[in-house]
Amino acid sequence: MIRVFNKLSAEKLFAAQRSQYSETLNMAGVVPANAGFLARTDVSNLGHFLCLKITGSFSTLRIDPLAPPAIIDDGIDHLRGQLIDGAGQRKLFNDFIPLSLFLSPGRRRDVTATNAVLPTATAALAGLGNSLFYPVEFEYLFAANSQILLELRNDSDTLNRFDIAFHGVRILSGVSVAGVRGV
């Protein structure tokens, strides 16, 4: 197989390097029992953010119906979310979808659960979540000075936590790199 390479130019490479860099935007929170929650993270005015992948985890807690008020990890995805582009409030999913459908590694054990410290053989509901980790590909360009919003709904009778990281490339605006150019 023959590959044809374009001539490398230090000037072009430096220009590209000055205009973009890898970045991660984080979002985390606690969704109250039987309620909704709006999480947000700022894109900032440095430039646009091209999201390439999403990773994240969440808890699956509820009150034990056999021994209230003990909180157990039942392994059921109680959190559903709707991802929204803050610039223009564009909904990126058709409906609220379970977090397990777009987050990896996904479900995590929560130390506040009664059965989190028990051996799996004695507490089947405390089984580990998916231990494989594959960042989920999600390509979307978020505008500078906007926000990434995640509207969440929790159908559990106790609170649940989530953590999300948006991995991508910051595309700097001409104004933000004017002092760095030096060319």
Walk me through this protein's architecture.
- The two termini are 38 Å apart.
- The protein is mainly beta.
- It has one domain.
- The radius of gyration is 21 Å and the shape is elongated.
- It has 1 helix and 12 strands.
- Helix content is 5%, strand content 44%.
- The C terminus is likely disordered.
By DSSP (H or I, 4+ residues per run), the number of helices equals 1
Shape descriptor reads: elongated
SSE arrangement, N to C: HEEEEEEEEEEEE
Oligomer: single chain
Give the percentage of residues in beta strands: 35-45%
Specify the helix fraction band.
under 10%
Please, what is the average pLDDT? 83
Low-confidence stretches: 120-126, 177-183
By helix and strand content, what is the structural category?
mainly beta
Number of strands: 12
Largest sheet: 5 strands, mixed
Cα-atom radius of gyration: 21 Å
* Overall domain count: 1
Give the secondary structure arrangement, pairings included:
Layout: H1 10-19, E1 20-31, E2 35-42, E3 47-58, E4 61-63, E5 71-73, E6 79-85, E7 90-91, E8 97-98, E9 105-107, E10 136-142, E11 147-154, E12 160-172
Parallel strand pairs: 3-9
Antiparallel strand pairs: 1-12, 2-11, 3-10, 3-12, 4-5, 6-7, 6-8, 6-11
